[in-house]
Amino acid sequence: MKRKILLLPAMACLLFLLNDCSQKLDVNGPYKNVPIVYGLLNQQDAVHYIRIQKGYLINGSAYLAANIADSIYYPDILKVTIQALPNGGTYTLSRINGTSQMLPKDSGLFANNPNILYSFTGNLDPTKTYVLTVINTTNTDTISSQTGLVENFNVSTPVYGQSIGLSDANPNEVIWVPATNGLIYDLTVRFNYLEYNAANNQLLKDSFVDIALLSSYLYSPNSGVNNITVPVTSDVILRSLANALSPSLSVYRTFNLQKGMQFKFAAGGPDLANYLTSQQAQSSSLASSAILAPYTNISGGYGVFSSRLFQEVDSVQLTEDGIDSLSCSALSSQLRFLNHLGQLCNQ
Questions:
Q1: pTM: predicted TM-score of the whole model, two decimal places
Q2: Is residue 158 classed exposed, middle or buried when 0-12, 13-18 and 19+ CB atoms within 10 A define those classes?
Q3: Which residue of 41, 72, 191, 334 shows the fewest CB atoms closer than 10 Å?
């Protein structure tokens, strides 16, 4: 691909609109190398990955170019390092094909094989700051960024093995202390269930439904709020199950008492929070008088270098009343869950 003029890929759709508006408008400019970096460090991981690509604009179909690997990946010309400060070591990252290491890239518009990533192995120290430096060895162009790590945080409730009910009037709550460097949160409940053949009681399925309780919640450290609290209402749980599962007289279901529910937390760092909120603003910016500049914390490029952390509380149970609500509520009775006595509702 010799006629490349690099531009941020996220702007491709806008460029298509501009090209369609007027054949006299030349949106191509002189060649400019625009690196795109995405990396989220996690102290829980032993191996860490950074994606480094290039933006582009070509004289031709950007859709076709996106599916050509050399349009979006650099050749092996980048020196990539991450240094832990203060007084930490320096990691030199290796250029790898993630596809060959069981790290496939999702199929879509952009080329997915090879899946070029830069990786290093090491245990990260949450008290340190990590500085990313990328040097193009053909011209010494340098890009850089830095991030702290999201640290572990305490979940007050629920705890392992706790039983909770399903009530809108008096719902149980999920309460946790925000993590150091944790400014954006997702919270998902994995609801485990068993499905049986109603004719012969044969187990057909051991499965689950993931229910989002919180998505991209922004926490402000200056708000004076010491805990984040999210109610677990029957409406959210039962309505989500009703939307995810199909009614059928040929089956019945039970709450999986052995596995219970898992409460899955994802916490993101400040720059990830800024990046995600910027993306949300971009989705509505066409209605405004100006297109917003994309958020980046990459000096000399675009993208985001930040951190995240996952936590989970396992084996949260339903009370007998909660199981009965699951079985008999108007929202979920058609799903044929057994009550705490092992019977269908009203039997």
A1: 0.82
A2: buried
A3: 334
